[in-house]
Design brief:
By secondary structure, the chain is α+β, with helices and mostly antiparallel strands. It has three helices and seven strands; from the N terminus they run αβββββββαα. The chain is about 30% helix and about 25% strand. It has a five-stranded antiparallel sheet. The protein binds ligand K1U and zinc ion. Zinc ion binds near residues 91, 92, 93 and 137.
Length: about 170
């Protein structure tokens, strides 16, 4: 297994729209395992392939306290969005920044499993929020884009400065 490098905002590669996975190969299964390891090590509760500069439609999530409920979603597709929930979000690609985002409270998502089978999942609460956040990454959208232009500009300045200082 391997720890993968996570891209940081405002890296333009975070705005790439990911392509569907055409076949669940051994390479895809290995990438999913590496993504899970990277997510747990960060630590985080989700990770999209976009964040590790692989532009394919795959994400991992585990919102459990015990870190024993890993879900891998390949080619996820939102079938239903219901209600509204406002929650503070963070992002491994936007370190140190947390802000409130409004999303659907209940979702139904269709996805392909690592065994190649298609399944449907109903999610509410943090799991629903996290899956929506990760699907946004696959569509090239970072959560700060829900914030005001002023906040986005401040975050961009702060993270660019941090990146330059780290060089
Ligand atoms: O996509 C990502 O960058 C992962 C992100 C997922 C997420 C968090 C909160 C709301 C929506 C989506 C994170 O995991 S940020 C880190 C985090 O939330 C966390 C870290 C350790 C323990 C508990 C939470
Ligand atoms: Zn994120």
């Amino acid at each position: 297994m391997a720890l993968l490098k996570i891209l940081h905002y405002p890296d333009p590669r975070l705005h790439t729209v990911a392509k569907p996975v055409t076949e669940v190969t051994a390479e895809i299964r290995q990438l999913a395992a590496d993504m899970a390891e990277t997510m747990y090590a960060a630590p985080g509760i989700g990770l999209a392939a976009t964040q590790i500069d692989r532009h394919i439609r795959m994400l991992v999530v585990d919102v459990s306290e015990e870190k024993n409920s890993l879900l891998t979603l390949i080619n996820p597709r939102l079938l239903l969005k219901e209600g509204e929930s406002v929650r503070e979000e963070g992002c491994l690609s936007v370190p140190g920044i947390y802000d409130k985002v409004t999303r659907a409270e209940h979702i139904r998502v269709q996805a392909t499993h690592l065994d190649g089978k298609i399944f449907e999942l109903d999610a509410t609460g943090l799991l629903a929020i996290c899956i929506q956040h990760e699907i946004d990454h696959l569509d090239g959208k970072v959560f700060v884009e829900y914030l005001s232009r002023l906040k986005q500009a401040r975050i961009k300045r702060k993270l660019t400065k941090q990146a330059l200082e780290a060089m």
